[in-house]
Amino acid sequence: MPTGRPRRAPGTRAACFAVLDPATGEPFEDAPDQRPEELDAVVGRAHTAWHDWRTDRAARTTALLAAADAVDTAAAELAPLLTREQGKPLAESYAEIARTAARLRYFAELDPGTQPITDGRPVRSEIRWRSLGPVAAIVPWNFPLQLASAKFAPALAAGNTVVLKPSPYTPLATRLLASVLSAALPEDVLTVVTGREPLGARLASHPGIRHVTFTGSIPTGRAVARGAAATPARVTLELGGNDAAVLLDDVRVERIADRLFWAAFRNCGQVCMAVKRVYAPARLHAQVVEALAERARTTVVGAGLHPDSRLGPVNNAPQLARVEHCTAQALAEGARAAAGGHRLDGPGYFFAPTVLTDVPPDSPVVREEQFGPVLPVLPYRNLDEAVAAANGTGFGLGGSVWGTDLDRAEAVADRLECGTAWINHHAELSLAQPFAGIKESGVGVAGGPWGLYGNLTPFVVHRPEEP
Ligand code: NAD
């Protein structure tokens, strides 16, 4: 969380906080530091706007399609700002913006329909879907726009209004996005609030909110659920992960190495469903380590705005400290860095892409979510033990199995305790598929029609066939 004394933006009376560029560690712009007391008026306006917004699905579709076009048109303005505050390479910011527009289009066209209930009774009844009311969407800093759209696109398509709170590390592109969307959406249908805690806590527990949809860490998710428990709101939680990739003994290492590397290191490893642990057959372990380490050593790390950068900085100082601490602890426990293992010299929050071997299996870098550009590669002799180790944490977001015999790989994937399992891939998601973590990684379902229904409530009228 950005610290420092609240300041006032030049020429205004509003309190602000500084947003830092992670490539330099220096502040570059201010964002409004809204007070929790302001939420009463914001939620009240969202409630008023809901009355019209919920009534006409065709009008919503038109508005959301126009909103998607507006996002595409503003990409050249949004992308550099997103890179500046988040750190990711510019091409990835453009991809995130394209995904945001695509998600708006997908949900704009998705019709929840009505479903008849046929159970043999002489009653005509059908499920009709109703919106919930104002939705509180709280998101983290790793994919500020993409994750925000994963909340507001289905919520708005369902006829709800949304109060969106980005992370204080990345409020700027979200504020710009809201102003871009305001050209297509009625007033107060989507409101962005920015500020430091307890703004999020107060939003999650606001009595006027009907659905709290949160993406972030497990401890904060628990706090959000506790806060919302005193209100009538539904709660959806998309939380942390610690995904395992299990390599089978028929895997062709050179064929999969690029995909596996980027599944772990994209966005500097700051992806909830990044590969965070690799289990490799002992016979192939050294080859896997070297293939990944060679890529880690040669990947260009630098400011996201530099055209050659493939990896940017870690987003913020506490996150960098966490990555550093986990890595140092593993090294102190006897691990060896086949690549990286340290911060990079100079300003900014840069950490060398790190591949670790000889890591004790119960080291925090294996068992906890370090959420950075660090990848432990662990050898196994017995596949059952590898599957047990993959399943042996409290996390349950994603997992993957890599091998040549696809039937065998699928049988192993079927044994993974998580919401999504990939074969020879990782973290590829269709807009049309459900996305849900199990165990501590989440509550509720996002994505596809399930994401839409997660923002609706069923309404059933029972009508007899005879008066
Ligand atoms: P975080 O939990 O610290 O913060 C997430 C959001 O909650 C931010 O907007 C933050 O300001 C806000 N917040 C902080 N305290 C709050 C409180 N008491 N009440 C309400 N809101 C509060 O997470 P982070 O560090 O920003 O993001 C990284 C985490 O997000 C990782 O654990 C990662 O795995 C997870 N994540 C999960 C998914 C998923 O889909 N499952 C996707 C992306 C990130």
Compact summary:
The protein is built from 15 helices and 19 strands. Helix 3 runs antiparallel to helix 6, helix 4 packs parallel to helix 5 and helix 9 packs across helix 10. Nicotinamide-adenine-dinucleotide binds next to helix 7 and helix 8.
Walk me through this protein's architecture:
Strand 4 and strand 5 form a beta hairpin. Helix 4 packs parallel to helix 5 (144-157) and helix 9 crosses helix 10 (282-298). The chain folds into 2 domains: 16-239 and 433-462, 3-Layer(aba) Sandwich (Aldehyde Dehydrogenase, Chain A, domain 1); 243-423, Aldehyde Dehydrogenase, Chain A, domain 2 (3-Layer(aba) Sandwich), CATH 3.40.309. It has helices spanning 39-53, 57-73, 75-86, 90-108, 144-157, 172-181, 199-204, 218-228, 253-265, 282-298, 317-332, 364-367, 383-390, 406-413, 448-453, and strands spanning 7-8, 15-21, 26-32, 115-116, 123-131, 134-138, 161-165, 190-192, 211-215, 234-238, 243-247, 275-281, 336-339, 354-357, 374-380, 398-402, 420-423, 442-443, 456-464. The chain is 38% helix and 21% strand. The radius of gyration is 23 Å and the shape is globular. The protein has 467 residues and is an alpha/beta fold.
Write the layout of secondary structure elements.
Blueprint: E1 7-8, E2 15-21, E3 26-32, H1 39-53, H2 57-73, H3 75-86, H4 90-108, E4 115-116, E5 123-131, E6 134-138, H5 144-157, E7 161-165, H6 172-181, E8 190-192, H7 199-204, E9 211-215, H8 218-228, E10 234-238, E11 243-247, H9 253-265, E12 275-281, H10 282-298, H11 317-332, E13 336-339, E14 354-357, H12 364-367, E15 374-380, H13 383-390, E16 398-402, H14 406-413, E17 420-423, E18 442-443, H15 448-453, E19 456-464
Parallel strand pairs: 6-7, 6-9, 7-8, 9-10, 11-12, 11-16, 12-15, 14-15, 16-17
Antiparallel strand pairs: 1-2, 2-3, 4-5, 5-19, 10-18, 13-14
The structure holds nicotinamide-adenine-dinucleotide.
Residues 138-142, 147, 165, 167-168, 197, 200-201, 204, 215-217, 220, 223-224, 238-241, 272, 369, 371, 397, 437, 442 line the site of nicotinamide-adenine-dinucleotide.
